[in-house]
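Most newcomers find our protein records easier to grasp once they have seen one. Nothing more is needed to start thinking about how sequence determines fold. Here is such a record, shown just as it appears in the course material:
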Amino acid sequence: MAQRTVPVGEILDTLQQMYPDAHCELNYTTPFELLVATILSAQCTDKRVNEITEPLFKQHNQPEHFIHLTQEELEEHIKGLGLYKNKSKNILETCRILYEKYNSQVPQTHEELEALPGVGRKTANVVLSNAFGIPAIAVDTHVFRVANRLGLAKSDNVDEVERQLMKRIPREKWSDAHHWLIWHGRRICTARNPKCGECPLNKMCRYAQAEAKKAAKASVKKTTAK
């Protein structure tokens, strides 16, 4: 039996109604601050990153401020975050490149951003979308999980999930959809114990429907066993 078509438009409309104010939850005032904050956010919560960057950016908020720091000095500022040693090294190298090659400006293409130390596809998409208004879908752990559960994508490969989302979601909604999926993943469609029962998307969600069927079968078996 063929699988039913995923109602992409209805899912997006529902997400928009649920999270009309969805936005990047990293605190920043410039593209450079967002770039640094996003590098720092790897395997960390936005809340924790904001706690670290608030005092950091008061003293160092331009590439030329960072290049005068030693790696050990920067580590002291960010040691409350995971992978802080590697992040310190990457940020300092990136700042030197920005200062020497880009006149301390953050570049606005995938190719240039991804050539910077510590910057992968996801980070580049976050910066392009939020700092420069360039449509992009950054696939983090929340977007990856929620997109697969809803049926908006079907892959265990992050890049393939991004490609599928870009194909199914209208380009003008890429950036908003990215935030909707993140907010949904943080608030309802959590990794463990997702709140399917209270989710307005549960009738459209492949994961929720599959879980409901499993629960129904388990209930029948339990009743039959009595």
Remarks:
- The mean pLDDT is 94.
- The chain has one domain: 1-226.
- Residues 206-225 form the longest helix (20 residues).
- The domain at 1-226 is CATH 1.10.340.30 (Endonuclease III; domain 1).
